[in-house]
Amino acid sequence: MTTSRDEVFSKIRDVLTDALGVDEDEVQAAATLQGDLGAESIDFLDIVFRLEKEFSIKIPKGELFPDDILNNADFVDGDRMTPQGLETLKKAMPHADFTDFEAAPLVSKMPDLFTVNTIITYVENKLAAA
Amino acid sequence: MCDERGPANLTGVNMRWIWIDSFVEFVPGIRASAIKNITLAEEHLHDHFPHYRVMPPTLVIEGMAQTAGILVGEARGFKENVILAKIKRAEFSDYGLPGDQLRYEALVESINENAAMTSGRVLRRGEEIAHVDLIFSHVNQSTRSSEMPDHNFVFTGMFMDLLSQFRQHAKSESTTTHAK
């Protein structure tokens, strides 16, 4: 049985309201986890655990939220990502929408890639591959 | 920085920061139960509150964190420091009073190389008085920040003694039972 995007979204909304203590109506598809929903780094661990439980999936370290890209000197030049860094990030996050980020790949804007939509697409991909 | 008395703080001063008395159950990687006897010999109770002495719920959470933290640390061979990262849920329906014995029951919900999630109940005379769910972060050499010591500063002295005492006790009970 396949799970529709609406069903996935509904479950993710529950996960995020519980993990972040936000109201349901704040969890819009385009909302960013850190900027709009106030997530901190520790909350990402919580979200990953809850998603694994809710969808019975396994989320390997760094797959949903890559955490070591910025540590590579080849991938960052001052306040921007290098073309090589951007390509690596896009490969690591096929579930994210890079439309805005590509236009100006500022390191400070990287957290905006982590939206509710990013999680929905990631979970959809995992369920489809299962 | 540490000796048999317990964990040391960052300035090297040993402190007794232990909020469970003993383990009564320990199933590696799955669940653990510990007890805490609340006594008026504990100084802090006389200030919390002067005419109504109750164990502060924050210290009940700490007791659960120690029970669950040792369970999580043991599951990965005490290779990493296990740090309480987030209190997912802490709900209390009653206080623990002097003379009460609290039982902390911790269960591993998920565990991986980065972190662990536990759920827990606090019981008094068999009745649940609190529910405490926690998230722990594993900190090792590659993930520690520069402010943290480079040795295992969590699982020292008294924490390890608690577990070894439980195991010794369980072993001697088993031997006694077999001997009968």
Question: Could you please describe the fold and organization of this structure?
Answer:
The complex is a heterodimer of chains A (130) and B (180). Chain A contains five helices and two strands. Chain A is mainly alpha-helical and 130 residues long. Chain A folds into two domains: 1-63 and 114-130, Non-ribosomal Peptide Synthetase Peptidyl Carrier Protein, Chain A; 66-111, no CATH class. In chain A, a hairpin with a 2-residue loop joins strand 1 (76-77) and strand 2 (80-81). The longest helix of chain A is centred in the first third of the chain and has 16 residues, at 5-20. The termini of chain A are close together. With 180 residues, chain B is α+β, with helices and mostly antiparallel strands. Chain B has one domain (22-179): Hotdog Thioesterase (Thiol Ester Dehydrase, Chain A), CATH 3.10.129.10. Helices cover 23% and strands 33% of the residues of chain B. Chain B is built from two helices and six strands, in the order E-E-H-E-E-E-E-H. Chain B has a six-stranded antiparallel β-sheet. Chain B is globular and about 50 Å long. Chain B starts with 21 loop residues before the first strand and ends with a helix. Mean pLDDT of chain B is 87; it is low at 1-6.
